[in-house]
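pinging the channel bc i need a second pair of eyes. not urgent but kinda urgent?? the chain im working w is below, pasted from the shared doc
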Amino acid sequence: DLEIGAPTKFTESTAYAPSSPYSASKASSDHLVRAWARSFGLQVTVSNCSNNYGPYQHIEKFIPRQITNILSGRTPKLYGTGEQVRDWIHVEDHNLAVLEILARGRFGETYNIGADQKDINNREVIELICELMDIPGQYELVADRPGHDQRYAMDASKLREELGWRPRYTDLRAGLIDTIAWYRENTAWWQDAKEKVESTYAAQGQ
């Protein structure tokens, strides 16, 4: 978690500081992998990525939840004040970066994966989704998520300089247009799970 407005970005040497059990479980998995590498010589690379969006993302996640809310006639939901900032990266860019790391990354190294998008908060994201889906400004404020980090920003310069990787989706608006189209054209993939997901969120006041 980084302070909003700060110029700092996560580097490969930034100490982990998880703020929820969910993020702590992800941090512990990295520590476990590194321990196996150090103790038993396991040949590993570790990658840390900023927030993903795109096709096939589970509808409990922020962007697909709002898209499928609108497609199913529900009101989009914004957690807290929506000031949380993320460096959104398209899933195809993330996948290609992982392939580069597996193919040419150095064993024992960690690589950050990020799209270097300008800081954009969740309120701006939901407003953009509403605009693209022709319901401008029609969203509801709900309870914030426990331990919700305020800002993620990844320094991916090591990945770019060592392996030459570059993101292809550098325009969030264009990426969201494609993502909205995918969920609209693939309702059978998410429709059956929607009621259960929304029932769980409703019980949490979200």
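so The CA atoms of residues 21 and 168 lie 33 Å apart. and The longest strand covers residues 46-49. — does that match what u expected or am i reading it wrong
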